[in-house]
Amino acid sequence: MRRFRKSNSVVIGSINGTNSATVSAKVGIGTTAPVYTLDVVSSDARTGNFYNTAIWVDNYAVTGNCQNSAAMGMEGVYGGQCGVYGESNYCCIGNRYGVYGTATGGATNWAGYFNGAVFGTSYTTSDRKLKRDIQPLEHASALLARLKPASYYYRTDEYSQLNLAEGLQYGLLADEVKEIVPSAVKKAKSLPVYENHDASTGKVTAPAVEFDALNYTELIPIMIATIQEQQQQINHLTELLEGRK
Questions:
Q1: I want to staple 137 with a disulfide (CB 3.0 to 4.6 A). Which of 65, 103, 224, 225 is the partner?
Q2: pLDDT class for 96, splitting at 50, 70, 90?
Q3: Cα–Cα distances in Å, from 237 out to 141, 145, 195, 221?
Q4: Do residues 223 and 144 make contact, with C-beta atoms less than 8 angstroms apart?
Q5: pLDDT-derived band of residue 1, with 50, 70 and 90 as boundaries?
Q6: C-alpha to C-alpha distance for 190 and 211, rounded to whole angstroms
Q7: Residue 179 in 3-state DSSP?
């Protein structure tokens, strides 16, 4: 293992076999002037790759956690605190992904799980070439009539680890929607919370929670079809009234 010291920084040239390095300064890989605690610079397709081969539950290839006070963030740039920050804006051709996630092969698969509010521009896979057995949606009004909108409060004290929204909420109950539109409901499970965020030695401070998640977007076509059906009824009644004049 080769190490070069410069300005309280440590640059690791290579680590082979079981060799390891523990440093209290800055570590650079591919750079002689690391700016961050770990600074990796590479022109390869992948700058870093983390692969966890453990077979137990709740293992992580990479974790990110920011425990500074709110004032320590870069307001207006990153805003407050960031556990993980992804950015892709230097490539002039091809596709760019700030963060890309995929999950397959499990009982429940989530490419991304966010415990808290999420802001973003959302698109879904809607290309015709990806679909088969396409049929017009009929009797949408009957489906919509069976849905039961409700007001409610989340049990924020009982399930504090889920960061549920405070105050009066409006929505649907997933168990009721499952009986009417099964494809709009999917099982979800939060990860347990460990003391000091350490899954290996920390005690569980909040257990995992399994619950039903609702895809409200899937209900939009039903509402559109209902409006269209109602408009057809209005047009028909209008024609009848005009015929009587």
A1: 225
A2: confident
A3: 17, 21, 66, 24
A4: yes
A5: very low
A6: 8
A7: helix
N-term to C-term CA, the chain: 96
Residue 131 has pLDDT above 90, yes or no: yes
Q: Write the pLDDT tens digit of every residue in 146-177.
A: 999 999 999 999 999 888 999 999 999 999 99
CA angle (96 as vertex; 90, 98 as ends), nearest 5: 90
Distances (CA, A) of 63 to 11, 142, 192: 23, 46, 14
Mean of all residue pLDDT scores within the chain: 80
Report how far apart, in Å, the C-alpha atoms of 13 and of each of 19, 26, 49, 183 are: 12, 14, 17, 52
Q: Domains (ranges, CATH) in the chain?
A: 1-49 (no CATH), 50-244 (1.10.10)
Question: Does an H or E element contain 28, and which?
Answer: strand 26-29
Residue with tokens 């453990």, as numbered in its chain: 54
CB-based contact 212:186 (threshold 8 Å): yes
